[in-house]
Amino acid sequence: MAFEQIVFFFFAFIMVGSSLAMITVRNPVHAALFLVLTFFTAAALWLLMEAEFLGIVLVLVYVGAVMVLFLFVVMMLDVNLARMREGFIQFLPVGIVVAVLMVVEIILVVTAKPFQVEAPERAPADYANTEALGNVLYTEYVLPFELAAVILLVAIVAAIALTMRRRPETKYQNPSQQVKVERKDRVRLVKMKPEKK
Length: 197
Fold this sequence. Notes:
- Helix content is 68%, strand content 0%.
- It has helices spanning 3-24, 28-48, 52-76, 81-85, 92-110, 129-137, 142-164, 175-179, 183-186.
C-alpha cells in the first residue's frame, strides 16, 4: 500500500469518526468542535487530491469564520441539556429509518453510471487548479455564481436590518448625553438632622 493511500485512509477514518461523534454527542459545543475536526480532515483530503485552493478555502471560511460564529452563538444561548435528552428514545426508530434511507441513496448515487469514470491522468507540474477553477467559475458558471452572490448579499442586508430595528423592551444608551452629564445632574446632596440617642 502506498504512503498516499495510508494517509488517505487515516484522514478518512478520522473524518468518519468525528462526523459520527458530531451527531451523537449531547453537548452542542462538543458537536461544533467535532464538526471543526471533520472540516480539517476534509481539507486534508482535498489537499491529497491536489485541490489546494478548495482545502485552504474550507479551513479559512468554514473553520475560521462559520464555525467560530456558530460556537459563539451556541455558547451565548442558554441551552437546557437535560431537556434535550428527553424523548431521545422516542424518536430513535424514525432516526434509524432516515439514516438507512440516506445510506441507500448515497450508495445508489455513487454506483450510478455517471460516477463510473476512469481516474484522470496526473496534472503537469505547471498546472494551477486555482486558475482552472477561476476560468470555469467565471465563464461557464458565471450566472449561478452571481446569483449566489446576490442571495448572500440579500441575506446579509436582512440580518443587519433585523438586528438594527428598535425594540421597545430594549434599553439603549446615548453616549452624547452621557458625556454631557455634570455632577449636579447625578449627585443630590441631602441635609439631614442628626439623630439623638
